[in-house]
Amino acid sequence: MQIVDFCGEELEDVAGEFLLSRIARTRPDFRGRVAFQELGEAGTLCRSHWGGPLRIFRTERMAARASEDNLMLFCVQIAGESSHHQHGRFAQLAVGTGVLKETRSAYERMSAAETRSLTLRFPRELLPIRAAEITEGCARSVDPAAPAMRVLSGYLGRLFEVAEDLTATQRLDAGCAAIDLLAMVLRDVTPSVPGGDGPGEVLLEMMQMHIREHLADPGLRVAELARRHHVSVRHAHTLFERIGTTPGAYLREQRLVEARAMLSDPRYAHLGMQDVAAAVGILNLRTFERAFRRQYGMKPSSWRREHLPTGSARRP
Question: Which residue range or ranges hold the HTH araC/xylS-type domain (predicted)?
């Protein structure tokens, strides 16, 4: 277990080191404490004491630029009250109430007085429910009296207390068990999302995988994607509606995500911008730069300067 005491001026640094980067606003006399239990690849379990009024938020730009955009946070209120805002929804947390948040989107947390919370941070891909249902489950308060929530909150509290006595393998297994319990909880609070399991869901996953595996193919367009999977363009759009996007937007997003990763990787520091764009299937440099700036708020060359490790050989 690692324990950190901090004041208001140190809050953003502590959050960035142990949870994720975000902006914090509080009083100069603010004092807090966080204690962390590592659960291996299953994430971390954190118990926090926030010693006064607090506002923490993550902007859309921060979410777009972050490297930890696949992380999820599930918070259980231990003492006091707080409110959470994401995707246009507000969740008011009293003692025992839980709430899910995703780091890939902007969010805000506010409290007017001293609070305590227990937070499970874990990779999104470990949560065994559909992507659209995960997003729909964010910022929805979970009733502390619900049987599944009572099981989960009790389990998380006990896991935090005994984690140090477990082996690394046992901590990983315990963390994965906590995530499975969370999936059970979320199925009771998440609104029904069209689609469900079945042939359509399988086809959608196949199309998403095909996109991710063929990003470098400049001929991959929506019509070509539909042709390769023997469906109409209209049906392709219907399938992608299940995850709240269009096939074209998903293709563009995945190309930019891959380009962003390449620009931050020393192995590709020798490549020029035209080469990076071509590697993700965008042949026109101006189109690439314009799309990248729209998505991440800066030019790809600026991203590289900020995120490529010092000393790497760089090209504009």
Answer: 205-306
Condensed to tens digits (0 to 9), the pLDDT of residues 96-125 reads 999 999 888 888 889 888 999 999 999 988
Could you tell me the fold of the domain covering 2-189? Jelly Rolls (2.60.120)
Q: CA 283 to CA 242: how far, in whole Å? A: 30
Strand ordering across the sheet containing 82-86: 23-26, 54-58, 107-111, 82-86, 89-93
Q: CA 128, CA 80: separation in Å to the nearest integer?
A: 31
For the chain, give the number of residues.
316
Helices (H), the chain: 11-18, 60-65, 131-137, 147-162, 168-189, 199-213, 222-228, 233-240, 247-263, 273-279, 285-296, 300-307
**pTM of the predicted model as reported, rounded to 2 decimal places:** 0.61
Share of the chain above pLDDT 90, in %: 44
Site of tokens 């979320």: 186
Bridge partners of residue 96, in order along the sequence: none
